[in-house]
């Protein structure tokens, strides 16, 4: 092992591992290790092996007091394969501090160099310990194999040089697959390594890299670096009987049969070596006495040589100083390499952040596309709803047309029914005349029956012979006589009642004629209603046509919006592609830049190694020169001449090899520099390309933004048309509801009139009964009349039902039309007119129904008086039940009407209140807008005036001179301070850390200024003061106060006052 000239060296006390025993050892600090020997090492003692080598990588050192000396210190290492604590002691405090500082500096240097080590291959592998495998992190660097606990690589567990190692397959199978056996050129646990590669794809790669490094010659420069790397990490240790065991072995569970055989052989060899060593020591003891005398003489010679060496050491101090400077230069390069590494880490973090930003942007783009898809689906749904609404409207229009046709048909039938009612009235008159004639005929019949009775009495005497026949005739005659007597009494009563009620019947006839006139009026109203319905039909067709056009316009707007959206998507896609290309180019540029930085690091590392190699070569060359000078100073017959000659030749050979290594390192440094230059050029080209891609991406993004704005405008236009369409539909719905309300009120009024008419008809039933008594005399004619009246009544009931269905159809038609008409006053008036017409129609129908009912009641009574049949009575009873049910339904309808009326009144009240509130709100908004417009006009005039005066506004403000009242003393000049004031809508005036909400602004100075300063007239013309609430932003206090300002000119003062007044208003 060679010894560096510039290394720190000297004797230290070292405590034995068991404690209590102290040994004096010679320590040398060099190459990241602390080596110790059993005696002093001179510059020429390069072939002697140390007792131990302590690695300083990851070590710590601190001063500590011991029982042996007060100048001790403790050195601890983190290696798991060596004893981690060493207790050392010096002769003085200065010496101890010097050793501690030198050890700490060397440990820092080797740690920094370790961080910059190049990595050829790294990954997780399994290592066999006994029969178990443990997973570790392995790294191949500079032909050395290092292994760690994890990927952080903070402190290696071990390291072995690979040059000269044997890479083979294990002889026996293991638990793990892909196993590799590595026999290294070291002693201890790392002599044989069994490694297992967990990934099949990595097996050949690991095998190749291990084989490649094992083929390196251990005597070459690369082999020497591998040995230094392993030594620096783990150290080396030689046999030292006084030291005790130094190696703490890893946990071993057992060895397989192959390892046990090898261990047995090694133990046997070790025992033989111990025996040989004992014999050699005995012989050495014998020779010791013989050589003691020679040693004394040699000591004297050595003393002379030591003096010469001291002189030579003084001579070489300058050389050591130069070497120190070179070491400082190397440290500086190491610092630069460290900074470059930090810069590379920062670049890596920046690249990582950019990747995260890119991922975030991608997520935002996906979310935006999703939102756009949802908006498109919503628009499509709205379009479908509009299409369905249009289909419903068309269907309602068709139903309205069908209802209109049905109404026309029913109107014609109603007219025919009116004519039939007129004919029925004429027939009723004819029946009345027939009833009178029947009365006369009944009287004549009675007289005739009396004559027949007299003839029968005469013929009874004559028919005595025919007794049986006469008896039967007699019985029949008696029966007939009884009937005639009853008929006579009834006719007399009926004649009296008929005479009494004739006048009432005549009045009823007049009422029927009035009802006929009302029916004619109803028919006229129906014709008017028909005309109105035709007009509404035309308006509805126009509304449908308008809706169809609006639909077409909306579809066109949607189509335009869809085209704009597609353009926007295409532009956004192109922008994304450009952006991705720019980011890709930027990432490539960043990668090339990182490669450039790594190349720079490699260059600096190679330069550092070249400097180290040059320094080592220089040391070896100096050692060779020293040895050669020593040889030249000796005579050839001197006994030491041959030894020094061999040492000189060996030193020269080592120097030549070191110079060769330095030359190679210098060549590698030049190659690394060339590579770094090439990487720099590539990085610059990549940056230029990335910049071009970025500009293209920005242009594409700008274009996409323009397309997006156009699409948004088209979408806004489509949305506006949709809102207008919905507003028109809302207006139509409101109009329909109002018409329904008017129609409901008309129906309620008609229902009320109908009930009143029914009450009137019930009061007149008695009069109608008298009229019906007049027809009782003629049984046959009364039955026929009853049947006719019954049929007519059924027809009227059917007509009433028909009228109700007709009314429902008309209501349905109105409802369908009202959905599409605008609500206005003319519509309400038309609805009221329609309600009046319907009311008149209903009254006429009710009057006709009441007349028919009265006629039916009269006929029924006449039928009962004349002995009507049971079937006719049954039919009359059913008619009475139907009438009672109708009365009940009328009562329920009246109750429902009253409830609806109350709800309508409440709704009208709420609607009126809402309209009032809306009107008040609109008035307030108009007032506020007018005030704002006035303030804006005043403010604009003020700004225009300031600009004309040459005053530059700063945020609607400028420089003003403000009086500080606390600094104004009576009788002083009162010079104000210049302040930057800003006019604002929130406060009025702001300056510094204060804000002032102005309530009043006055031209001229305040009373305070006039009393304390007595300003001139010119100053008064240029001043103004404001009154309001001042807010101190620092303390938060609010005070009522006034503040004085003055301007450069009077015109400027007037403009400021106008601007502040505008803000106040």
UniProtKB/TrEMBL annotation:
Pfam families: PH (PF00169). Coiled coil: none annotated. SUPFAM superfamilies: PH domain-like. Residues 829-853 have a biased composition (Low complexity). SMART domains: PH. It comes from the Eukaryota. Residues 236-381, 414-488, 502-536, 549-582, 627-778, 804-920 are annotated as: Disordered. Residues 266-381, 414-439, 446-463, 471-486, 506-517, 527-536, 627-653, 660-710, 717-778, 816-828, 854-863, 886-920 have a biased composition (Basic and acidic residues). Residues 253-265 have a biased composition (Acidic residues). Residues 5-108, 118-215 form the PH domain. PANTHER family: PROTEIN OPY1, TANDEM PH DOMAIN CONTAINING PROTEIN. This is PH domain-containing protein. It comes from Palpitomonas bilix.
């Amino acid at each position: 092992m060679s010894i560096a000239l510039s290394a720190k060296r000297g004797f230290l006390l070292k405590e034995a591992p068991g404690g209590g025993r102290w040994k004096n050892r010679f320590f040398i600090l060099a190459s990241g290790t602390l080596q110790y020997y059993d005696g002093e090492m001179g510059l020429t003692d390069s072939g002697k092996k140390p007792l131990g080598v302590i690695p300083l990588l990851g070590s710590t050192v601190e001063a500590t007091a011991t029982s042996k000396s007060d100048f001790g210190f403790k050195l601890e290492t983190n290696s798991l394969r060596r004893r981690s604590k060493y207790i050392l002691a010096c002769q003085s405090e200065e010496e101890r501090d010097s050793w501690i500082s030198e050890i700490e500096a060397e440990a820092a240097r080797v740690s920094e160099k370790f961080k910059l080590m190049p990595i050829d291959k790294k990954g997780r592998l399994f290592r066999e310990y006994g029969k178990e495998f443990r997973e570790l992190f392995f790294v191949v660097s500079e032909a050395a194999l290092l292994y760690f606990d994890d990927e952080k690589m903070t402190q290696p567990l071990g390291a072995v040089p690979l040059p000269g190692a044997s890479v083979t397959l294990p002889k026996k199978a293991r638990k793990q697959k892909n196993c590799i056996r590595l026999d290294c050129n070291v002693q201890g646990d790392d002599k044989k390594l069994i490694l297992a590669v967990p990934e099949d794809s990595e097996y050949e790669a690991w095998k190749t890299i291990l084989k490649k490094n094992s083929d390196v010659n251990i005597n070459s420069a690369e082999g020497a670096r591998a040995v230094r790397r392993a030594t620096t990490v783990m150290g080396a240790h030689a046999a030292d009987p006084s030291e005790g065991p130094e190696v703490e072995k890893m946990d071993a569970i057992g060895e397989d049969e192959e390892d046990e055989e090898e261990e047995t052989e090694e133990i046997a060899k070790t025992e033989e070596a111990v025996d040989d060593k004992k014999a050699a020591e005995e012989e050495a003891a014998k020779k010791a006495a013989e050589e003691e005398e020679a040693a004394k003489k040699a000591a004297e010679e050595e003393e002379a040589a030591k003096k010469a060496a001291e002189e030579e050491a003084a001579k070489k101090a300058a050389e050591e100083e130069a070497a120190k400077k070179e070491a400082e230069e190397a440290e500086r390069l190491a610092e630069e390499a460290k900074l470059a590494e930090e810069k590379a880490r920062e670049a890596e973090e920046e690249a990582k952040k950019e990747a995260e930003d890119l991922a975030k942007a991608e997520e935002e783009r996906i979310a935006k596309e999703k939102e756009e898809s949802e908006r498109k689906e919503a628009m499509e749904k709205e379009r479908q709803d509009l299409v369905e609404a249009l289909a419903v409207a068309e269907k309602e229009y068709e139903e309205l047309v069908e209802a209109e046709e049905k109404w026309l048909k029913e109107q014609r039938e109603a007219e025919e029914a009116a004519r039939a009612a007129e004919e029925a009235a004429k027939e009723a008159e004819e029946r009345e005349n027939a009833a009178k004639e029947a009365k006369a005929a009944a009287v004549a019949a009675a007289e005739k029956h009396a004559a027949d009775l007299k003839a029968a009495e005469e013929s009874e005497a004559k028919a005595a012979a025919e007794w049986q026949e006469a008896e039967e005739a007699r019985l029949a005659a008696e029966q007939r006589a009884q009937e005639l007597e009853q008929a006579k009494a009834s006719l007399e009563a009926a004649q009296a009642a008929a005479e009494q009620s004739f006048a009432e019947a005549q009045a009823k006839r007049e009422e029927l004629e009035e009802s006929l006139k009302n029916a004619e009026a109803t028919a006229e109203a129906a014709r008017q209603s028909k005309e109105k319905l035709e007009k509404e039909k035309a308006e509805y067709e126009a509304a449908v046509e308008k809706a169809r056009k609006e639909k077409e316009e909306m579809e066109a707007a949607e189509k335009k919006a869809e085209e704009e959206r597609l353009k926007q998507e295409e532009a956004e896609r192109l922008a994304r592609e450009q952006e991705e290309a720019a980011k890709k180019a930027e990432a490539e540029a960043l990668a090339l830049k990182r490669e450039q930085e790594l190349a720079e690091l490699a260059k600096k590392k190679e330069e550092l190694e070249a400097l180290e190699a040059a320094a080592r070569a220089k040391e070896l060359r100096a050692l060779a020169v020293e040895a050669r000078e020593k040889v030249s100073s000796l005579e050839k017959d001197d006994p030491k001449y041959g030894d020094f000659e061999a040492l000189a030749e060996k030193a020269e050979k080592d120097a030549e090899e070191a110079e060769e290594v330095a030359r190679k390192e210098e060549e590698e440094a030049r190659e690394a520099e060339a590579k770094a230059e090439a990487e720099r050029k590539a990085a610059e080209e990549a940056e230029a390309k990335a910049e071009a891609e970025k500009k293209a991406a920005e242009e594409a993004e700008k274009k996409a933004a323009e397309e997006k704005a156009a699409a948004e405008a088209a979408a806004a236009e489509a949305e506006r048309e949709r809102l207008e369409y919905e507003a028109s539909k809302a207006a139509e719905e409101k109009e329909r509801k109002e018409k329904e309300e008017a129609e409901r009120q008309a129906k309620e009024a008609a229902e009320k009139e109908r009930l009143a008419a029914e009450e009137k008809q019930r009061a007149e039933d008695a009069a109608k009964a008298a009229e019906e008594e007049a027809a009782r005399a003629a049984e046959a004619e009364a039955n026929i009349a009853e049947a006719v009246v019954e049929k007519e009544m059924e027809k009227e009931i059917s007509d009433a039902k028909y009228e109700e269905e007709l009314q429902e159809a008309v209501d349905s038609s109105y409802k369908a039309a009202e959905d599409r008409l605008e609500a206005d006053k003319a519509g309400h008036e038309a609805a009221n007119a329609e309600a009046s017409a319907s009311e008149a129609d209903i009254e006429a129908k009710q009057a006709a129904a009441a007349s028919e009912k009265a006629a039916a009641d009269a006929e029924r009574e006449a039928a009962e008086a004349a002995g009507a049949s049971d079937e006719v009575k049954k039919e009359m009873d059913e008619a009475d039940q139907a009438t009672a049910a109708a009365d009940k339904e009328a009562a329920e309808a009246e109750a429902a009407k009253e409830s609806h009326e109350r709800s309508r009144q409440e709704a009208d009240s709420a609607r009126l209140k809402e309209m009032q509130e809306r009107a008040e709100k609109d008035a307030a908004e108009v007032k506020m807008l007018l005030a704002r417009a006035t303030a804006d006009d005043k403010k604009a005039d003020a700004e225009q005036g300031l600009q004309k005066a040459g005053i530059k506004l700063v945020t609607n403000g400028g420089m003003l001179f403000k009086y500080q009242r606390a600094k104004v003393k009576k009788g002083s000049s009162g010079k104000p301070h210049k302040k930057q004031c800003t006019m604002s809508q929130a406060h009025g005036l702001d300056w510094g850390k204060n804000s002032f909400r102005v309530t009043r602004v006055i031209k001229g100075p305040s009373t305070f200024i006039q009393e304390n300063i007595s300003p001139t007239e010119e100053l008064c013309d240029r001043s103004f003061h404001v009154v309001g609430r001042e807010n101190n932003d620092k303390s938060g206090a609010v005070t009522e106060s006034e503040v004085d300002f003055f301007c450069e000119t009077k015109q400027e003062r007037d403009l400021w006052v106008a601007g502040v007044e505008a803000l106040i208003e």
